[in-house]
């Protein structure tokens, strides 16, 4: 693996020639099941209470205009796109009914990437893992079985220790085994293959000075065993590196579990970690209870409780009854939590109350109006005759009682030996989008590795000593809970900004704000593309910039701790690695200001190092065509967080999209993995991108320790001048003999993904004065551009 980019690195950043055409996927309107037709009649049937499970489905479109037609049809388009023979493959979230509708509109649908049955299997798998974990927790102590305890000598006279132990509590990833001998302590690595726990081990043998007679293994679950150390008679091999413990996650975790996990870590390692409570509480995993009666647009109405569902709303019941006698008047009574609407009849005994009449009567009743608000269906006049029916009010939330319904306090774990603001800060955060279940595991695994390996891995110890690391595993806890327990494709948070028109219970899976469109830089409100004003759109930006507490929490953290210089926002899926700019104005494709050539080269060089760390786990390579600024490799994403952090506070911010395509040798094709792959695959993704996050920390460490000024050389060639550089730098220059400053012209980019442009000159003699500055702020020759010194670089070129 190469070194992270610093002023001592001489390699110029890599360049790739593969360019992926950016397609602006601007999701607007309602999901297809909620699509309102302007030609709809009062007698049109309502969509079903449940449209059936959704699937992840590829749609092949010939060109960009057809993508916009797909979006206009109301499809929930994901971030995933790729060029294919005959056009572009776009993934949409759609039920079987919605797939049939798309096919009827002429769109070319392929077989689902993730079927409803496969998604059910993933959920069942998660629940089984939780049951195993509960069973383990119920045990008083775990049983430890020592598989191997050996020492051996390798070339050069070095002695190594190797231990392997199986615990009966191994199915629980929170079980940690520690090996002790002669005053030494070592944390073991949990070995998992194909999603199954096998045993704990030293990933690589540990060098020792003297052979111990025995080792003692203790478990965090209470078990303890002592084993004699034998000599191994095999061929000695030198390990490729020191032992490094990994594998600290074993199932998809909901936000409550994730938060409890980091709290426990901070409590276990008080000298190295602490919890930072973010100030803006979320809305909470809660909703008001609702019930809808009616089967057509014109005769349907619904009620919404004033109380939250868990605070009494779910105890209410709504009923409309036929009095069975002619000439009855409309009436509303409340008895034992049941709101009973007695419908009016004419002289023949036929019902005459319309949906609008029922709504008005409920809202005029002191008893009923004290409990609920009644509404017609999506602003319809409600002229149809109300139906007889009875429905229990419900908030439609299925999470267990272990998930609080109250506003959630989002928490970060802060890791570092010196947490006083003096060290370079790094922010690693994930699950802005609720349905991306792998991403919190990446952050939990990263935190575990840093703390568990601190005492036995010198490289980890140096990272923790040199950095101030802030990890937010779940930015969007409410949406995360909703995704796991209610609607797995939930992308947004749970705050409903829709108002009466789309606040009926049939629209509940479409409520919320896309948090990665809610920030203040390059936002929809500034005219940038890639976000929607529709409250039911998958990319709804919210009613205003930073309207959501989840987004304000991120901003608060970066303002509260200005030492944060690096950030990593982890998303899924598709295997992208991106950085700013992330948005452009549609008309003319005008982007946010691009980083300087030096900053861009630093992004590239750092990315190469980080992606090598990702690849080191199982060989996954993020494609060069999916690496680069967001707008260069994906699309415009107005109001995203990486732009917020970069343009407002100068934080080098990246976006991981975990879950790279997998090569299928049988079909000879790359295959997408989806948001919630079977855990065996999710585990591998968590491991490899945790390794990538460690790579980011090493980049930040090199940045913080970089004190060496860069060095550049003037080169004249073919009527132009360029500069050779020892590392990524921004270069300012003058050609008229004047003193160069930060206001002087700078070397600019030659174009999209092309690197620096030569400075073209007319024939003549030129005195070139210049200086360079690297990403860490070191100026060439320690020159002060703001002062009066003249120790800038000089050169004279003659252009024929």
TrEMBL record:
Gene3D superfamilies: Zn peptidases
UniProt cross-references to InterPro entries, sorted A to Z: GH29D-like_dom, Peptidase_M14
Protein name (record): Zinc carboxypeptidase
Pfam families registered for this protein in UniProt: CHB_HEX_C_1 (PF13290), Peptidase_M14 (PF00246)
Transmembrane portions of the chain: none
SUPFAM superfamilies: Zn-dependent exopeptidases
Gene Ontology CC: extracellular space
Cofactors: Zn(2+)
Active site per database record: 657
GO molecular function: metallocarboxypeptidase activity; zinc ion binding
UniProt key word Acetylation: no
Annotated ranges, domain Peptidase M14: 373-700
Biological process (GO), any one: proteolysis
Cytoplasm recorded as keyword: no
SMART domains to which the protein is assigned, alphabetical: Zn_pept (SM00631)
């Amino acid at each position: 693996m190469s070194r992270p980019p610093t002023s001592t690195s001489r390699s110029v950043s890599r360049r790739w020639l593969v360019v992926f055409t950016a397609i602006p996927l601007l999701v607007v309107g309602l999901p297809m099941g909620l699509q309102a037709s302007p030609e709809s009649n009062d007698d049109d049937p309502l969509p079903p209470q449940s449209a059936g499970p959704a699937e992840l489905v590829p749609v092949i479109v010939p060109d960009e205009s057809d993508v916009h037609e797909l979006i206009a049809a109301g499809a929930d388009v994901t971030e995933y796109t790729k060029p294919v023979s005959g056009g572009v493959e776009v993934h949409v979230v759609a039920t079987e009914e919605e797939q049939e509708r798309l096919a009827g509109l002429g769109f070319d649908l392929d077989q689902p990437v993730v079927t409803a049955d496969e998604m059910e299997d993933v959920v069942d798998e998660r629940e089984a893992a939780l049951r195993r974990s509960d069973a383990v927790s119920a045990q008083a102590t775990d049983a430890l079985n020592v598989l191997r305890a050996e020492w051996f000598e390798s070339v050069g006279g070095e002695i190594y220790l190797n231990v392997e132990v199986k615990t009966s509590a191994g199915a629980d990833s929170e079980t940690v085994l520690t090996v002790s001998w002669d005053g030494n302590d070592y944390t073991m690595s949990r070995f998992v293959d194909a999603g199954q726990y096998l045993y704990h081990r030293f990933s690589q043998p540990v060098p020792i000075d003297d052979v111990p007679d025995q080792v003692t293994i203790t478990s965090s679950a209470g078990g303890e065993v002592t084993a004699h150390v034998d000599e191994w008679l095999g061929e000695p091999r030198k390990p490729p590196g020191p032992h490094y413990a990994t594998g600290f996650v074993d199932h998809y975790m909901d936000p409550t579990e994730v938060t409890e996990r980091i709290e426990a870590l901070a409590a276990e390692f008080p000298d190295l970690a602490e919890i930072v409570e973010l100030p803006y509480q979320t809305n909470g995993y809660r909703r008001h209870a609702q019930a809808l009666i009616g089967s057509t647009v014109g005769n349907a109405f619904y009620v919404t409780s004033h109380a939250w569902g868990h605070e009494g709303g779910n105890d209410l019941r709504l009923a409309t009854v036929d009095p069975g006698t002619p000439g009855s008047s409309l009436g509303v009574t409340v008895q034992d939590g049941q709101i009973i609407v007695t419908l009016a009849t004419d002289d023949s005994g036929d019902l005459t109350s319309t949906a609008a009449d029922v709504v008005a009567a409920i809202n005029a009743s002191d008893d009923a109006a004290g409990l609920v608000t009644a509404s017609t269906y999506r602003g319809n006049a409600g002229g149809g005759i109300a139906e007889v029916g009875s429905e229990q009010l419900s908030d439609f939330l299925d999470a267990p009682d272990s998930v609080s319904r109250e506003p959630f306090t989002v928490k970060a774990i802060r890791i570092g030996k010196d947490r006083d603001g003096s060290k370079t800060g790094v922010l690693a955060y994930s699950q802005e989008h609720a349905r991306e279940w792998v991403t919190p595991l990446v952050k939990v695994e990263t935190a575990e590795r840093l703390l568990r390996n601190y005492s036995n891995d010198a490289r980890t110890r140096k990272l923790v000593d040199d950095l101030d690391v802030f990890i937010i595993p779940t930015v969007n806890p409410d949406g995360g809970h909703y995704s796991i327990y209610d609607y797995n494709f939930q992308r947004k948070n749970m705050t409903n900004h829709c108002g009466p028109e789309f606040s009926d219970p049939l629209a509940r899976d479409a409520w919320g704000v896309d948090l990665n469109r809610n920030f203040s830089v390059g936002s929809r409100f500034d005219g940038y593309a890639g976000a929607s004003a529709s409250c039911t759109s998958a990319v709804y930006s919210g009613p205003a910039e930073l309207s959501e507490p989840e987004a304000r929490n991120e901003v608060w953290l970066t303002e509260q701790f200005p030492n944060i210089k690096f950030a990593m926002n982890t998303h899924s899926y598709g295997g992208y690695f991106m950085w700013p700019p992330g948005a452009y104005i549609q008309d003319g494709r005008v982007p946010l200001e691009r980083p300087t050539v030096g900053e861009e080269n630093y992004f590239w060089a750092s990315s190469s190092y980080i992606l090598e760390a990702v690849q080191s786990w199982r060989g996954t390579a993020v494609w060069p065509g999916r690496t680069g600024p967001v707008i260069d490799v994906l699309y415009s994403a107005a109001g995203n967080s990486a732009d917020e952090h970069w343009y407002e506070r100068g934080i080098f911010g990246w976006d991981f999209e975990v879950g790279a395509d997998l090569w299928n040798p049988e079909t000879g094709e790359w295959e997408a993995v989806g948001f919630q792959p079977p855990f065996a695959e999710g585990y591998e993704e968590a491991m490899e991108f945790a390794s990538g996050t460690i790579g980011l920390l090493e980049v930040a460490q090199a940045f913080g320790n970089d004190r060496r000024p860069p060095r550049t050389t003037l080169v004249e060639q073919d009527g132009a001048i360029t500069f050779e550089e020892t590392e990524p730098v921004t270069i300012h220059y003058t050609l008229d003999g004047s003193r160069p400053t930060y206001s002087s012209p700078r070397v600019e980019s030659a174009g999209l993904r092309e690197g620096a442009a030569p400075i073209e000159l007319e024939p003549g003699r030129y005195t070139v004065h210049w200086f360079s500055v690297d990403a860490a702020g070191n100026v060439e020759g320690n020159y002060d551009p703001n002062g009066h010194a003249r120790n800038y670089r000089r050169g004279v070129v003659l252009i024929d």
